């Protein structure tokens, strides 16, 4: 055996778990999803080719598709910006705190670790319009008390509050970037008489801009894939009983918490319209990959250089 | 003037810090307080319990299934984590150290898989596990794939292995170690923090997973995990907010405890996934 064949065999051996996983859990199901999207398929009878029928159904007749796209756009614009701005703010704050910095950092980080179902349940309780502590405090202060997860105008802001509460991941990433900005630049700016705002605008932000871009792009991907929190919030706030065999029309209240992944579940596992579910899955796939490609560009944050 | 300005700045920063800390901590406090209220008081707007009902936590464990969900969650998270680490380390090592054609392509596919939401491929996957292998109603369709490398773990481990200087590997080779021996004897001991971070992330992923158990285990309550069972807790067991919040605390607590013991590895991991040095 030549050294080259030996090298190739060695590489293949080390990669083998991934090669099998790639074929079985990525390439095959992706191809099958594309094929099913062109068929009428209920999981019992064989799939029957029906051209673009599912595509036209999902894009024009399925009433939940466009509300889900609209909600996703809302989440991308509002939730992602709130998380990035707040994460950066908390990161700046933590790098300036002198006393008990470690304690503050831990406290700020903890909510990020709360399991999503548990955190969502906690927020549905905290924000429940009847007896929730938040509305008690708001009313006590003479402020209006919204219906949060039970009001279509307030359900996405409530989800945003939940997402901002768990901003610890961004805080850590921003903190690391902020500590990497060379001190001399701040000192030079200070000598030039730059105000605190000018130092942030002209020294800090340009230095950490790749990290801000990373936070925004991963935030957009997460917003498109947002599933557990809106679904659980809708189920619990509406009083629907979860569990086996029970149907739940996602989006409570009034489609305001619908997102694309929930449609895959609803079409596939509640209506057994696998063909249409695969159409939504492919839309989700295309959107995710566009933004993943942004991250993977040469020189991008996850660029596979070197 | 300058020292006074510095003092004001110090006060402003720390006051803001305390305000932010309240925002992050108060939800936990309210959840904890409500979990200790009596059934009647949980229906009121009170914030602090009149009588502290520690028995609520025992009551949660008496709810049918709760103890079983604990066991299932530990099995899914524990076994899944071990399988993920064992299968991902060699792949990450090859991607970090071997020169071969198609390496860039493999790396790009790994990142693509990392960004892929599970819903995209769930329909063929469900049909495969349920119809071909008759394994629905259990957690095996979630555990078995972890024996074939996890994209996120591979990516994170590779980033970590890149930080190990070549000299150590060259030295091992000069001593006549093969690649596998080098990996096990030289690289793994040095990569312990990276492996710890991956193990933690994977453990938390399985602990927190809701979609997976919903697809494969929902038909069989005996196979539910904590994250999945918790959602149905309030409605299905006719319990009020006090017991629901006690259950919520019991699902959050292990994650918090693990975090306190492994804080350093965790934060290192988050930073590592962020942006390459």
UniProtKB/TrEMBL annotation, chain A:
Gene3D superfamilies: MetI-like (1.10.3720.10). Residues 69-295 form the ABC transmembrane type-1 domain. One of its GO terms (cellular component) is plasma membrane. PROSITE patterns: ABC_TM1 (PS50928). One of its GO terms (biological process) is transmembrane transport. Keywords: Cell membrane, Membrane, Transmembrane, Transmembrane helix, Transport. It is a multi-pass membrane protein. The chain crosses the membrane at residues 12-38, 73-95, 107-127, 158-179, 200-221, 274-296. Its main location: membrane. InterPro entries: ABC_transporter_permease, MetI-like, MetI-like_sf. It is found in: Cell membrane. It comes from the Bacteria. Belongs to the binding-protein-dependent transport system permease family. This is Sugar ABC transporter permease.
TrEMBL record, chain B:
It comes from Streptomyces roseolilacinus. Belongs to the binding-protein-dependent transport system permease family. It is found in: Cell membrane. The keyword Transmembrane applies. It is a multi-pass membrane protein. GO terms for cellular component: plasma membrane. Residues 70-262 form the ABC transmembrane type-1 domain. Pfam families: BPD_transp_1. The keyword Iron does not apply. PROSITE patterns: ABC_TM1 (PS50928). Keywords: Cell membrane, Membrane, Transmembrane, Transmembrane helix, Transport. GO terms for biological process: transmembrane transport. This is Sugar ABC transporter permease. SUPFAM superfamilies: MetI-like. The chain crosses the membrane at residues 7-30, 74-96, 105-127, 139-161, 182-205, 241-262.
